[in-house]
Amino acid sequence: MPRGNETPAVVDRSRLAWVKSSASSSGTDANCVEVAAAEAFVAVRDSKDPGPMIVFSGTSWSAFVHSSADPRG
Length: 73
Description:
alpha+beta, 1 helix
């Protein structure tokens, strides 16, 4: 899991390795996001429109993943 409390102001997209969930359907109408984890942050983008992305600090991403996995919210 990435570590860090800050989101970088600039991200070098050429260094990101994007991963799509294996649970995603492979059809042309598939709705899916791709995730790229770096040392200190995580980037998320729409697989159908890979231009824009959202960048989370490692701390924020970790909190999101843990809260999403907890059935109590």
